[in-house]
Amino acid sequence: MSDLERYYRILELEPGATLEEVNQAYKDLVFVWHPDRIPKENLRLQQKAQDKLKAINEAREKLRSLKTKHQTISNSPSPSPSPSYQQQTPSQKTQPPPKQNSDLSGKDYSRANLSNKDLSGRNLSYANLSGANLSDTFMHKVNLRGANLSEANLFRANLLLADLREANLRGANLIGADLSGTDLRGADLTGARIRSGERLLVKLIGANLAGAIMPDGEIYQ
């Protein structure tokens, strides 16, 4: 098996998958194998998760680099006496995504479509995300302290270990969201959707809810 085939197999993809499919497979597998989802005392699974993440990261980076290079070459002009390929390349490169520690505090993303984005580790404190579509968005350890998420769609969003202190989650859709380990102290969840009938459909394992206003208006003690 070639290295290329191995990278596709690690990401559970068929050879020739698109860059979008590579990125989505990466996010899905990170969600499954992130060490924070595994009990700290289970050293065997912790080590397995670390090894899996290392392989997943390597496969994603190799495939992304290969596909970006292929796109650049495909889009480059045919050889001619005009300036060389090396001179033309910079203007054709895809701009890199913002760094993971990008400061987006206070930004206005109201009603923005951020579905399936990777916002892990970003600083979005006091940002306006009211009515935003954040379904299936990966927001591990994101800082959303004081952010306005009223009426936002957080369906199946991954908010593991996120900081949501004093956040406004009034009327937000939290069905299927993973809020394990999240700091929700003082957050306002009035009217937020977290249940289907009597069934709780939000993961709140290890979440800190001290002082949070629950969907029914009661303050969590």
Description:
This protein is mainly alpha-helical and about 220 residues long. It has 2 domains: about 5-80, Helix Hairpins (Orthogonal Bundle); about 100-220, E3 ubiquitin-protein ligase SopA (Pectate Lyase C-like), CATH 2.160.20. About 30% of the residues lie in helices and about 0% in strands. The chain has 4 helices and 2 strands, in the order ααααββ. It has helices spanning about 5-10, 20-35, 45-75, 85-90, and strands at about 195, 200. It has a two-stranded antiparallel sheet. Helix 1 packs across helix 3 (about 45-75). The chain starts with a helix and ends in a 21-residue tail after the last strand. Residues about 80-100 have low confidence and may be disordered.
Strand and helix layout:
Blueprint: H1 3-10, H2 19-33, H3 43-75, H4 85-92, E1 195-196, E2 199-200
Which secondary-structure class do the elements indicate?
mainly alpha
Could you tell me the number of beta strands? 2
Biggest sheet details? 2 strands, antiparallel
CATH superfamily of the largest domain: E3 ubiquitin-protein ligase SopA
Q: Residue ranges: pLDDT <50 for 5 or more in a row?
A: 80-101
- How far the N terminus sits from the C terminus, by CA atoms, comes to 57 Å
Estimate percent helicity.
25-40%
Radius of gyration: 21 Å
**Total of domains:** 2
Write the CATH fold name of the largest domain. Pectate Lyase C-like
Q: Quick one: CATH class of the largest domain?
A: Mainly Beta
Shape: globular
Number of helices: 4
Tell me the fraction of residues in β-strands, as a range: under 5%
Summarize the helix and strand pattern as letters. Answer: HHHHEE
Instruction: Give, in spatial order, the strands making up the sheet with the most strands.
Output: 1-2
What's the architecture of the largest domain in CATH terms? 3 Solenoid
Average pLDDT:
83
